[in-house]
Amino acid sequence: MVLMKKLLVIALLVLLFLFSWLHALGSGWLGGEAQSLRAVAEGPRTESDSTIAAPLILFGDLHTHTNFSLDAYLFNTELIKGVGSATVEDACDFARYCSALDFWSINDHAESLTPRAWKHTAEAVRRCNQSAGDPAHPDMVSFLGWEWSNTDQKNAVQHYGHKNVILRSGEEGEIPVRPISSAPGNLLARIPAVAVGLLGLVEELEFVSDMGWYLADSYSTPECPVGTPVDQLPVTCREVARTPADLYRKLDRGGFDSLVIPHGLSWGTTNPLDADFRNQLQDYENRYERLLESYSGHGNSEVFRDFERVVTEAGGAASCPPKTAGFLPCCRQAAEIFRAGCASPGSADCEAGAVNTMNTFSSIDIQAGRDLFPDASLDDWAGCGQLQNSFQPASTYVPRQSAQYNLALGYDTNGKMARAKFGLIGSSDNHMARPGNSYKETSRLMYTDSKSFSGRQSFSWNPYVESGSFYYTGGLIAVHSDGRDRDAIWEAMKARRVYGTSGDRILLWFDLLNSPAGIAPMGSDLSLDDTPRFRVKALGALEQVPGCPAEASNALGPSGIQNLCGGECYRPGDYRKRIERIEIVRVRPQQSATDEVGSLIENEWRVFKCADAGQGCTVEFEDDQYLAGNRPSLYYARAIQEAQPLIGGDPFGCVYDDKGNCTQRDYCIGERATRQENCLSLANPRAWSSPIFIEPSRKEEGGSMVQTPTPE
Questions:
Q1: Burial per residue of 477-500, b for 16 or more beta-carbon CB atoms within 10 angstroms, e otherwise
Q2: Which alpha helices (H) appear in 191-329, and where do they start and end?
Q3: Which of 169-173, 405-409, 521-525 has the lowest mean pLDDT?
Q4: How far is it, in rounded angstroms, from Cα 528 to Cα 512?
Q5: CA 472, CA 297: separation in Å to the nearest integer?
Q6: Would residue 367 be called left, alpha or beta, if left means φ above 0 and alpha means ψ between -120 and 50 degrees?
Q7: How sure is the predictor about 32, in pLDDT bands with cuts at 50, 70 and 90?
Q8: What does residue 595 show for φ and ψ, rounded to 5 degrees?
Q9: Are 189 and 211 in contact (CB under 8 A)?
Q10: What is the CA radius of gyration of the chain?
Q11: DSSP characters for 643-692?
Q12: Which of 285, 225, 220, 279 is nearest to 249 (CA)?
């Protein structure tokens, strides 16, 4: 008995010691400040090939996260991705030598950034710029910024989504003393220290301690006092703006020249499925929101497909929306699964059960709905709930936040005239400090936000379990710039002389040939009282060759090339890929609040096949309906490149029949998606120009001609 008591005491002491040790490790007591400042690799790098025309075409990525974003810290653990440390300095080195970008920005989540982390970020970005050589002709420009995220999954009206704030200057005294967040903290900061300490069983102790230190630092940062002038706030608090309008007022008070770029609007994992950009129009301000990130590693949010995800009857009950081209509601597929299992197919009882199943699915959440058929395979669900027959779509696509829908709106929810005039861009939205990670399709876990568990298979955080298959390598922003310096790039972005690509460095020009001032480039906004004439020119991206340039290898060393770049860098060869076709999109925005948006969007208004033998493709066209329509119109171009194997090129992993129908799906998740599997499928990389906005300077009203305001 005495021995048992001694053993019990010893066991309790061991447990107490273990608990204390895990708590100390998870609290950061065993380590110093997270992610201490370190040197960036010496620059500058030799200029990239992107400057082949005047004005210059420069490529960048305006959406990069490091471990200062708490979700990135968690995802990059050995338990999930195995990336480990992902710092601002890593992002600088990757952008300069791995992806050879001309410009990039840092955009960690403001809701987890602490004043200490913000100071570190700003200093690291300044050191990255100091390594860029001559400021008038740098090898790379690094922009400072953050991500502001206000999400409400249960209330689409109060949901504003995610927006990246990019600052023109990164110099001390010319930037905010703290980023502006949408909330006083991040939920991940509340993870108990003991739970963090448990990661020490599979992670390096220094990494775990640093993570615990940063979580504690984030959790302990108080919200700034409300109503206190910005210049009187303590440096150690978190400044909060709960709506975009609040954010703009705070930026105005500081006098910070900045861009605010919405992104991920159609990604259903972070947006309510019934979200509608019309709800945001009353807060939209074109002076800040000049650009829209319509493509990223989380998918393509360009096209508008007119379908409903959520239908609410007059009495408040939910009902199942209809099936449309390219979209199958899961409630309808649930009815089909029920019918397939009927003992008497086609009978009245079978049909009644199918209808009841459909209605039941509509009234419960997605996961509970799928649990109605626990033995059904993912393939049995036939790709329901996802946008099908589209290029690399965002998972669980939200149609009324797509780029085309946003551009077609003319009125907000209050019936007040309002229009968003976005330039279209791509970026990566990667969480591994790897801006521009789309140069080669060689490492799915390193170059995409795909997750794995214990180094084995991919998994998803979303109730649509197949959503883990909808991660891509990310996109790029290209600018038509008058120079390589910061001011020239900034002015090009503010003027919307930009376009987006799905990752390949396609060269694209889109011009109005007969504006009153002559040739007007993409992004222009003007009056025109003549038949508009346009020209599009596109050149395919240069084919990549294996390995890294000697310059990158010398700067980063063998371990840097392998650990940071994944053994591969941007390294163009001489062959230029073919452009297969040019597609023109025409949108004629609402002139009445009752105008049906879908009818205003002509997704393939003009299509030109290209006989491109490596020399590019040039087309000219005009809109002979513009004058008769007598209404504002906008046009943009898509350049479609020859097909090549892409990670997630087909996120459904389809097997097709001879008619092109998807007969079987093999998503890039579970047993298929090991660390070594890249889940490659043929798809056509592409580039999207920014629109050219035109409208008549005079409009007929009541039989007379009246002058309309001149566009900006």
A1: bbbbbebbbbebbbebbbbbbbbb
A2: 193-197, 205-219, 244-254
A3: 169-173
A4: 10
A5: 4
A6: alpha
A7: low
A8: -60, 130
A9: no
A10: 26
A11: PEEEETSSTT-EEE-TTS-EEEE--SSBTT--TT---EEEE--EEEEPPE
A12: 285
* DSSP code of residue 604: E
User: Do 146 and 165 meet the contact criterion of CB atoms below 8 Å apart?
Assistant: yes
Alpha carbons 81 and 701: distance in angstroms, whole number:
61
β-bridge pairing 633-641 and 692-695 = antiparallel
**How far is residue 213's CA from residue 74's CA, in Å, rounded to a whole number?**
13
In which band, very low, low, confident or very high, does the pLDDT at 338 lie, cut at 50, 70 and 90? very high
In this model, does residue 3 exceed pLDDT 80?
no
Cis? peptide before 55, omega within 30° of 0: yes
Short-list 216, 707, 679, CA closest to 469: 679
Write the single-letter amino acid at 308.
Answer: E
In this structure, are residues 669 and 466 in contact, taking their beta carbons and an 8 Å threshold?
A: yes
Please tell me the predicted confidence (pLDDT) of residue 709.
Answer: 41
Of 48, 92, 53, residue with least CA distance to 542: 48
Per-residue tokens: 525: 């906004």
Residues 6+ positions from 612 with CB-CB distance below 8 Å: 540, 578, 579, 580
Which residues face 324 on adjacent strands? 327
Instruction: Return all residues near 10 (Cβ < 8 A) that are at least 6 apart.
Output: none
| HSE value, Cβ hemisphere, 13 Å, CA-based, for 670 | 8
**By C-alpha distance, which of 299, 293, 372, 295 is closest to 330?**
372
Average pLDDT, the chain: 90
pLDDT digits (tens, 9 = 90+) for 349-393: 999 999 999 999 998 888 888 889 999 988 999 999 999 999 999
Count of CB atoms situated within 10 Å of the CB of 173: 6
In order, the DSSP letters of 541-561 are PEEE-SS--HHHHHHHHHHHH
* Cβ atoms of residues 66 and 72 within 8 Å: yes
Tokens of 296: 């990223």
* Alpha helices, DSSP H, located in 96-243: 115-130, 193-197, 205-219
What per-residue confidence (pLDDT) applies to 704? 35
> Tokens 């521009």, residue?
436
pTM above 0.85, yes or no: yes
Q: How far does Cα 400 stand from its chain's mean position?
A: 16
Question: Look-up: residue for tokens 């979580």?
Answer: 215
**Biggest alpha carbon–alpha carbon distance for the chain:** 105
